[in-house]
């Protein structure tokens, strides 16, 4: 658990640096994909999933 959180934090920092630099290369996309896979295996995954589901439900309930 401690190792996966450390890897998630490292990949998150790398993803932020890559996004701020302005160019998205294949290596950057690979780091972002790895971040997603490692984030899915943490204990934060259900919270993130429920937050995204609630946001999607809120947006789908809006009537323009």
Instruction: Report helical residue fraction.
Output: over 70%
Q: What structural class do helix, strand and pairing data support? A: mainly alpha
Tally of structural domains: 1
Average pLDDT works out at 77
Q: Whole-Å distance between the termini? A: 44 Å
Q: What's the count of strands?
A: 0
Tags for this entry?
64 residues; mainly alpha; single chain
Secondary-structure topology with pairs:
Blueprint: H1 2-21, H2 26-40, H3 45-60
Helix pairs in contact: 1-2
Please give a structural write-up:
With 64 residues, the chain is mainly alpha-helical. It has one domain (2-60). Helix content is 80%, strand content 0%. It contains three helices and no strands. It has helices spanning 2-21, 26-40, 45-60. α1 packs antiparallel against α2 (26-40). It is flat, with a radius of gyration of 15 Å.
């Amino acid at each position: 658990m401690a190792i996966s959180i450390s890897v998630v934090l490292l990949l998150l920092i790398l993803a932020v640096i890559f996004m701020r630099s302005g160019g998205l290369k294949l290596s950057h996309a690979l780091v972002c994909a790895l971040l997603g896979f490692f984030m899915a295996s943490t204990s934060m995954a259900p919270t993130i999933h429920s937050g995204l589901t609630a946001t999607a439900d809120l947006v789908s309930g809006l009537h323009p």
